[in-house]
Amino acid sequence: MGFADLLDEVGGFGRYQWIHVTLISLPGLLMASQNLLNNFVSGVPTHYCSIPANHSLNNLSHLHQVTCQYVNPQWQLLVANSSTNVSHLETEDCIDGWTFEQSDFLWRLVCSLRPLKQMIQTIYMGGVLTGAIVYGSLSDRFGRRSVLIWSYLQLAVLGCSSALSPTYSVYCIFRFLSGMAVSGVIINGVSLKVEWIPTKTRTVVGTLSSFFFTFGQMVLAGLAYWLRDWRKLQMVVSAPLFLFFTYSWWYSESARWLVLNRRSEDALKSLHRVARINGKSEMIEKITVEVLHSHMNKEIESAHSTFTVFDLLRTPGMRRISICLMAVWFSTSFAYYGLAMDLQKFGVSIYLMQIIFGAVDIPAKLFALGILSYLGRRVSQAVCLFFSATIIFANIFVPTDMQTLRTTLACLGKAFTSASFTTVYLYTGELYPTVIRQTGMGFVSTMARIGSMAAPAVLILDEVLPALPSLVYGGSAVLAGCFACFLPETLNVPLPDTVEDPPSLAVFMCISMSTQCVCLKRNRMKFTLFLFLPSYFKFHCLQIHIQN
Questions:
Q1: How far is C-alpha 122 from the chain's CA centre?
Q2: How far is the CA of 224 from the CAs of 29, 165, 174, 210, 474, in angstroms?
Q3: Domain 327-503, second-level architecture
Q4: Among 263, 287, 262, 264, which residue's Cα sits nearest to residue 274?
Q5: Which residue of 205, 359, 402, 503 shows the fewest CB atoms closer than 10 Å?
Q6: How would you describe this protein's topology in the membrane (predicted)?
Q7: H/E element holding 509?
């Protein structure tokens, strides 16, 4: 008997859950806009060096394509129709300034100022990282609902303030604080949804609600194309948060969290409210404080202790889960934002590329839904990471002039990283126990924020070796896929409520002296390594079986 049984008694996934999940998922439309806004705010505008007033425009019209001034004179460029390769020549800021075509971008970050473009995104992701740490701990102390409501208000106010920023520095400060709020919205929204959903519907609900983020990417492209003004765009993607703040007072606090924090009367009121909305009014009289305690006796006993982030590493089971999830979160975010945050490199309209990158998430998440339901969380997570790494590596060998193929592979890679994101959000909520779930979500998602901060910086490495960023992104995905294989399976497993009962994992080893190994037990992940030993002059087979 546990809290999951009480949820079934008050209607399972009924009318309340439908409304609850929909209202919490709606802000996801704008979370995508906040995360990817930098593509449309601080891109590199079309520009070229201004021609001095004492020079003839007709004689130098063929030099209009010079975007930065060369350090050393390049007399060969004075020849009309010159075909000289100038990509490797050292440049500096234009002495006479630049001429810009009409630009929709916020700051004219060209030549020596170009690195500041990625700096905005790094600062924003630093705010998301800080928010994951701060709001993850605060929600375990003050509740998911309270912190979520505050995050809506903070993002609404600071997002609109960003649109009024007079300088680059002020804008960066507002974006940092907005990033903190985004993190509070995401991690508390996920937990508040998971803790009110029955076990058997978590996969479908978790995957389908992630489509709001997918559609949000396409909405961002449409708004940016329509508005063509960074201040208006910033305001439009932030102002609706005031609406979300207004209706968020309707949410019910997690009954699990209330019971574990000695607020059983409030938890009982929430359960009665859910039963009434779900049309199970007859259960109101049957569910009492005593019944509630009898279902959650084990969890209540464990809740007498105070938990901190160190408890995530205290027991062997929790330590393994936390370390593996840190690797998965980091690599997923690292590869995702590495592909999604530099749309200009594809040589296609950034508005079109944003729509395409958003659209590929739809089949990717449907794919994730299928394998999550039939193969389980662990296999799904590993498959998504390995596939994304394979595609990223494949793109290294495609010539730069085959832009269509490179763009197609980049879209496929982004699709699998998106599916990995969908999986890890659901997976993490199922792996951590209720008493420390938000602290755990905040802790491991900090690695995602570090990954998203590092991703723009890695893009700079293409000046050293064009293939280097792809090697780094793909290599991290392979490593994370290996870590994912050592996570326990949670498909159709009730949510753990205590630190002592996380999903278990057993590892078995067998060594066969033959060239073939056979595993007769089901529900196991099997890894086979063929080791050539010269002393025997034949292959030896080592199998590692991982089973719940």
A1: 15
A2: 14, 18, 20, 22, 31
A3: Up-down Bundle (1.20)
A4: 287
A5: 402
A6: Multi-pass membrane protein
A7: strand 506-512
Q: What is the DSSP string of 460-507?
A: GGGGT-TTHHHHHHHHHHHHHHHHHTTSPP-TTPPPP-STT-PPP-EE
How many CA atoms, within 13 angstroms, populate the side-chain half-sphere of residue 527? 15
Name residue 516's beta-bridge partners. none
The arithmetic mean of pLDDT across residues 65-69, rounded, is 48
The per-residue pLDDT for 342 is 62
Q: Find the distance separating the first CA and the last CA of the chain, reported in whole Å.
A: 21
* Structure token digits, residue 195: 């803790």
239, two tokens: 């102002």
Kindly give the interhelix angle for 115-142 and 144-162, rounded to the nearest 10 degrees: 150
**Helices 144-162/168-194 angle, 10° precision:** 150
Among the listed residues 547, 441, 440, the one whose alpha carbon sits nearest the alpha carbon of residue 504: 547
For residues 511-542, one letter each, b for 16 or more C-beta atoms within 10 angstroms of the residue's C-beta and e for the rest, the string is eeeeeebeeeeeeebeeeeeeeeeeeeeebbe
Tell me phi and psi for residue 21, to 5 degrees.
Answer: -65, -40
Of residues 116, 110, 229, 236, the one with CA closest to residue 171: 116
State pTM to two decimals.
0.68
The conformation of residue 74, written as its DSSP 8-state character, comes to -
Q: Half-sphere exposure of residue 257, counting CA atoms within 13 Å on the CB side?
A: 23
**Cα 316 versus chain centre, distance:** 27
Task: Decide if pLDDT at 411 tops 80.
Answer: yes
d(C-alpha 39, C-alpha 198), whole Å: 38
- pLDDT tens-place string over residues 306-362: 667 777 888 888 889 999 999 999 999 888 888 776 665 666 677 888 888 888 888
At residue 110, the pLDDT reads: 53
Who wins on pLDDT, 402 or 250? 250
Match 């303030």 to its residue by tokens.
161
Is the CA virtual torsion 86, 89, 94, 95 positive or negative? negative
Residue 246 half-sphere exposure toward CB, CA atoms < 13 A: 5
Query: What's the chain's average pLDDT?
Result: 76
